[in-house]
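S.,

As promised, the sulfopyruvate run. Input:
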Amino acid sequence: MKTVYACFCTDVIHEGHLNIIKEAVKYGKVIAGVLSDKAMVRYNRCSILSLEERKQMLEEIPEVSEVIVQNEVMYEKILRELKPDYVIHGDNWIEGPLRTIRENVIASLRGWGGRLIEIPYTYNEKVRNIDAVMKEKTAMPEYRRKRLRLLLELCPIVKTLEVHSGLTGLIAEKTLVANNGEIDQFDAMWLSSLCDSTAKGKPDIELVDMSSRLRTVDDILEVTTKPIILDGDTGGLVEHFVYNVRTLERMGVSAVIIEDKTGLKKNSLFGTDVEQTQDSIERFCEKISAGKRAQRTEDFMIIARIESLILEKGIEDALERAKAYVDAGADGIMIHSRKKEPDEVFEFCDRFRMVDGKTPLVAVPTSYHSVTEEELQNHGVNIVIYANQLTRSAFPAMQETAETILKYHRAKEAEDRLMPISDIITLIDEV
Ligand code: SPV
Ligand code: MG
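Predicted complex:
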């Protein structure tokens, strides 16, 4: 009997999936693949069911003869093992980045003369509704909040992009590229104090207060599902920090990063060009511990950011602080540097990893931007934050448009560089 393979990455079986199975059974014995958690994440899908539950859901479909786990987004490996006569899929992957997966399937099937069957993707109101409900569910605080811890287990490095508005949130949420035969996307969002302040035309000195920052958090939460890491500046007074931890946790934020500075905070990238004071180890540890005592779930993370390298206090000071902050309860350590090369970050990470193999490490390669994710990962970094690149790309583009209009006294000359109106009006999902 011929075999037909179909892979699923879903938490519900709807009409569209059943259409695929109904068609598949006409060709032979149906083997259903269930995409692993690790692969789901790469595919921009988050599940609220466990792998076992998803497997069971497919096993309950009478036409399905066998269910197996597909560990990679690309089908190549599983197809080589199964050598099915047919693979069946909806026709929604002919265009866009998912095309890479389709090409991978076609090339693999060629190896033994297998065939790809494509059926029209079912996209009626009911299916659209089910998709929307599932997506909204994954955005609920109880699911979103714990996703950062999950990603730390599933991803070799958690790729985090700066966001400061609903629109930038959508870019972090939806940008998907096919690169070297792989699908890639950002895993999490960094709500930068620098970019949140800059978007409001204000300096990055904790002038934009927590109420305003929370407003930005909410704008982003409303239109995205990925986990948020909030730049919590210094965390402010301990007495205020504990309230903010609870609020963030309740909203579904996954982590706050607080830096060990005190007094009037200035942006770290100024380094020693401006006056900045590092907090004492004891006081900062007390802030971390108070925050940890205040939180009400196991999910939320308080990550301690060490400014010793920024303030030229040396690696020894940074390592001493890292140990103390972890002992005080910090769920992760962010090491910041404004050097052009990553050497001091590597040295810190290597030495930290000699004594602590598990506490997550966070790096922000703004000034040492030539470093690759793989290099960071090889030195034990778990989260990479691209902290301000969206803001820095948008600002010159907008400025150039403004200058062009002023220069020509009309908009025509600016038009070539602009997104078409038809695209901008469909950029936002409608409910
Ligand atoms: C931010 O993005 O606001 C940060 C990182 O705190 S940095 O600007 O490099 O200090
Ligand atoms: Mg900041």
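The chain has a mean pLDDT of 95. The chain has three domains: 3-128, 140-387, 393-427.

- D.
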